[in-house]
Specification:
Layout (H helix, E strand, L loop, with lengths): L1 H8 L2 E9 L2 E12 L3 H9 L1 H7 L3 E3 L6 E4 L3 E9 L3 E5 L13 E9 L5 E9 L5 H5 L2 H18 L9 H19 L4 H15 L8
Antiparallel strand pairs: 1-2, 2-8, 3-4, 4-5, 5-6, 6-7, 7-8
Helix pairs in contact: 2-3, 5-6, 6-7
Family: Belongs to the AHA1 family.
Protein name: Activator of HSP90 ATPase
């Protein structure tokens, strides 16, 4: 458990504001260091084979201007690709997503560290959904990205699939961490507490047998 919680603590989380083509947006930002060369991290976030091992299986034209599809997660277009430092894509999810083109974008920035490691930053900017965001807050997407960056750390370290039952506790603590980021951004404490509870229930549903 200590190892997986160390991975949780390795991430700096910020809720902020930004813009996307559809207008003003909120952002979830995750920053951390990976003990891997920048070329290795770049390959892990752009290679179809390796993306499928830490995120979801991906298909499509994986080059600048191409369109991609992440199985069960979303689809979009590759907007910027500057190896090995910057990748930016539109990120659309759900049956009506194409009608909301321009409402969500993900940008990943990499920088070489001083000891052969890599500084990693991910920013997901999305127009506020008037129904979804008030219920779940930034943790809705933030916990999912925490899980993804944990799986990426495992891949880079050659320890794929070692999360096991610890992932539930990881997700609970991730939801709480995003609650703290929400408070730091000026969120109302009562709203934040309710959003953390809703996000936790979504990612770690109560076992009906234990009721």
């Amino acid at each position: 458990m200590r190892d997986i919680l160390d991975e949780l603590a390795a991430v700096h989380r910020v809720m902020g504001t930004g813009t996307v083509p559809a207008g003003e947006a909120y952002t979830v930002e995750l920053r951390r260091r990976y003990d891997a060369e920048i070329e290795d991290v770049w390959d892990a976030i752009t290679s179809a084979d390796r993306l499928g091992r830490w995120l979801r299986p991906v298909t499509g034209d994986l080059r600048l201007g191409g369109k991609y599809d992440l199985e069960g997660m979303g689809h979009g277009e590759i907007l910027r690709c500057e190896p090995p430092r910057l990748l930016k894509v539109s990120w659309l999810f759900g049956p009506d997503a194409d009608a909301w083109d321009g409402t969500s974008e993900v940008e990943v920035r990499l920088a070489p560290g001083p000891t052969g490691d890599t500084e990693f930053e991910l920013i997901h900017a999305a127009v506020v959904d008037p129904h979804y965001f008030p219920t779940f807050g930034p943790g809705a997407g933030g916990v999912g990205w925490d899980q993804g960056l944990l799986a990426l750390a495992r891949l880079l370290a050659g320890k794929e699939g070692e999360e096991g039952d610890q992932l539930h506790e990881f997700s609970r603590r991730s939801a709480a961490a995003w609650g703290r980021a929400h408070l730091a951004a000026g969120g109302d404490p009562e709203h934040v507490a309710a959003a953390v509870a809703a996000t936790t229930s979504f990612y770690v549903p109560e076992d009906p047998v234990s009721r």
